[in-house]
Amino acid sequence: MNLRVLGLSLALLSPLTAQSPEGGGMVEVNRIAATVNSRLITAKDVGMMMGPEVGRLMAEFPRRGPEFERQLKEVRDQVLKELIDRELIMSEFRKREQKGANLPDRVVDQEIQRQVRELYSGDMQKLRDELAKGRMSMSSYRELTREKLIVQAMRQEKFKDAAPPMPSEIDAEYRMAKDNLRDTSKDIIDYRKIFIPRIDANNPLATPDTQLAQAESLAEKLKEGADFAELAKESSADAFASEGGLQTHVPRPDLSPEFAAILFDAEEGKVIGPLEDPAGFTIAKVERIQKGPAPPLSEVKELIDQRVRAKKTSERYDKWIEELRSRAMIDIKLK
């Protein structure tokens, strides 16, 4: 299922247009989201960071509406805040860079591999496709990733005098974090699906709106207790209709990242949808989830240690950021 990700084409973040100096029509101009000490944060930067969450929201809210707009703005504001904070810390790092400080390329490579595994089901091409939609090069994405890692390193160094975590704190943080640290590429799911195409070749009077209304009606019946398998046999337009829509032992990488994020976060037995993609509308019900293995504590102890220290120093970190903000010139353009 290939869910539509507007990303940077959302009106909220869409680039502006201007007349070409050669008179050849309108050309794209990337909007400025904010400036920090005269350095630009663009709408493209914000949109790229929002990408996975925007895709999930677009799938979850086919009619968009107030709740979609509220959650979208919440995501956008949080991303913009993180980018502003990142630029503030990068300003501090650039002073050290003049004295030879640097971040090895291999560290950036490892982080991108982690993102591909956790956000794009282990498929590098899906990341490249997403970058292409946002008209961002891999080199630009690497630079964004590099800056993210530098910010993490600066924070760790700034507060390296924090009290060492106790064994009980390490164990508690590992139990809390291990699900998010698991190998999601090995997640497996059994689920039922009803698919209603956007365009019905057998009904020339059907429109995307009437097809969505049909999907919404089916979802309502299912939530009221109708038999999923029977409705799938009657109404679904995909290859699994005759099996009551049941698909078993489906690896996470076989699903689009947005669809996978929604399904694997759902409760077993819950009816989900309708979800939207370019081809149509999907109603799903999770039957069983088998999550990929979590790494043993011995493999991630350093990361868990850092998480505990970060929590212990969060108040001091917030004060540090506020000090950097008070000395900086920040102008937020996106409202």
TrEMBL record:
Cited InterPro entries: PPIase_dom_sf (IPR046357), PPIase_PpiC (IPR000297), PrsA_foldase (IPR050245), Trigger_fact/SurA_dom_sf (IPR027304)
Top-level class of the enzyme under EC nomenclature: isomerase
Pfam families attached to this UniProt entry: Rotamase, SurA_N_3
Cleaved signal peptide residues: 1-20
Isomerase is among the record's keywords: yes
Chain ranges of the PpiC domain: 196-288
Organism: Haloferula luteola
One of the record's GO molecular function terms: peptidyl-prolyl cis-trans isomerase activity
UniProt keywords, alphabetically: Isomerase, Rotamase, Signal
EC number: 5.2.1.8
Protein name (Swiss-Prot/TrEMBL): peptidylprolyl isomerase
